[in-house]
Amino acid sequence: MISKAMCKMINEQINRELYSAYLYQAMGSHSSHEGLNGFAAWFGQQAREEAGHAFKFYHYLLEQGARVEWKAIDAPPVSFKSPLAMFEEVLKHEQFITKSIHDLAELALKEKDFATQIALQWFISEQVEEEAAAQGTLAKVRMVGTDSRGLYMVDKELGARQAK
Description:
The chain is mainly alpha-helical. The chain has five helices and no strands.
């Protein structure tokens, strides 16, 4: 049986994951508006992934006999200064998500909640990938700066991303 404290934290994590989906979809919408369809495709795929993470947590709570509590999701920004600003925000946001998952793991360890510890291992590994992808793309966007040809190439590359 999962503790009330763990249940509360996982419910909060569901909300954070859904906000992540909202944020990335907003970045995708902005990218489409700016004619960066590769960026838009990347962010759309990322949004679907984040929603999937929320539902992994959702199903875990149900498997544990816990109650899922749906909370309001904050609205993300509508526009962004530049592709660079978006990927700086992506990295910052993924680091925030990593910390929140580590906080969950810390509580699971403290409570000797072995089932949750095991379930969280997938998310911990996933966050390593998420941060690496954000850092790699941010490095490319920084490298090209405002050069339209370079940005075009990054846009093409992001558009070719394959779903997991």
